[in-house]
Design brief:
Layout (H helix, E strand, L loop, with lengths): L1 H4 L1 H24 L21 E9 L4 E4 L2 E5 L2 E7 L1 E8 L6 E7 L4 E7 L8 E8 L4 E4 L2 E5 L2 E6 L2 E8 L6 E7 L4 E7 L9 E7 L4 E4 L2 E5 L2 E5 L3 E8 L6 E7 L4 E7 L7
Parallel strand pairs: 1-7, 8-14, 15-21
Antiparallel strand pairs: 1-4, 2-3, 2-5, 5-6, 8-11, 9-10, 9-12, 12-13, 15-18, 16-17, 16-19, 19-20
Length: 270
């Protein structure tokens, strides 16, 4: 008789147990693994690790935006990001820095950490040292004056640069230097003294046609151009019929050129 009196209680317990089982089943059905074959969702459960790898991403400097296979995944650092096994590409970008990119391959069940260094935009990444013998030469790089030799550890952009050395009394020298990222490159030149070139004169008169004499020696008639004259002081005289002779002293120096112009005065005006 006691058993029959307890039937309602037993039925109630059975009903409660059945309801709890149904709720658990419904909850499980509503919470499946959400990872897809794109490999970009972090909701993978452990039963999917035979297909996925676990990856972490960071950048130097910190705070870069991270793109995985062309899609924004978030801001650095990103930890425990699930990716389907295979090849992927990660790109990291940050204002003021060049975008860094890397292609990598992961295996199922693998844990991988990827850290990329970002390079500042327009940041000098190489150094050059420039020397000349003798020292004190003016130096231009790519047409821009940068100082006098010796020049040590000058920061420059990566690549090939044109260097020109100039120094009074010496031939100018133009050369090239290759600046390599993270390295110090040197360029030394020996300057050659200029050859002592004779001065060049142009003899001009008004009117033209006057005879020219240098130190009393006839050399031609005006106009007379590109005459190589010895360095030193010379007496130049122009003579033309109907005009007064005209003369002057001319000081010629090496590596120079000049015009010797005279206006002749008619004899009738004398």
């Amino acid at each position: 008789m006691d058993f029959f009196r307890n039937i309602p209680t037993v039925l109630l317990l059975l009903l409660l147990l059945s309801a709890a089982t149904a709720t658990a089943t419904a909850t499980a059905a509503a919470s499946p693994a959400t990872a897809t074959d794109s490999g970009t969702d972090t909701g993978v459960t452990f039963r999917y690790l035979d297909r996925y790898a676990v990856c972490s991403f960071s950048s130097n400097p910190y705070g870069a935006e991270i793109y995985i296979d062309g899609k924004l995944a978030g801001t650095e650092p990103i930890l425990n990001h699930y990716l389907i096994a295979g090849e992927h590409t990660v790109a990291m970008s940050k204002t003021g820095y060049k975008t860094a990119e890397k292609t990598f391959t992961v295996a199922a069940g693998e844990r991988t950490t990827i850290r990329l260094n970002l390079e500042e935009k327009n940041s000098p990444m190489a150094f050059v040292c420039l020397y000349s013998y003798p020292a004190g030469a003016s130096v231009t790089m790519d047409g821009r004056y940068i100082g006098t030799t010796p020049i040590n550890n000058l920061p420059v952009f990566f690549g090939i640069h044109s260097i020109q050395y100039t120094l009074d009394g010496y031939e100018s020298v133009t050369s090239a230097i290759a600046a390599d990222t993270g390295k110090v490159s040197s360029l030394s030149v020996t300057l050659t003294p200029k050859a002592n070139r004779d001065p060049v004169c142009n003899f001009i008169s008004e009117p033209s046609g006057a005879t020219i004499s240098v130190d009393g020696k006839y050399i031609g008639t005006t106009p007379f151009r590109s005459y190589h004259i010895a360095p030193g002081t010379h007496r130049i005289r122009y003579s033309l019929s109907g005009y007064k002779d005209s003369s002057e002293t001319y000081n010629a120096v090496y590596d120079s050129s000049g015009d010797i112009f005279m206006t002749l005065t008619p004899l009738s005006a004398a």
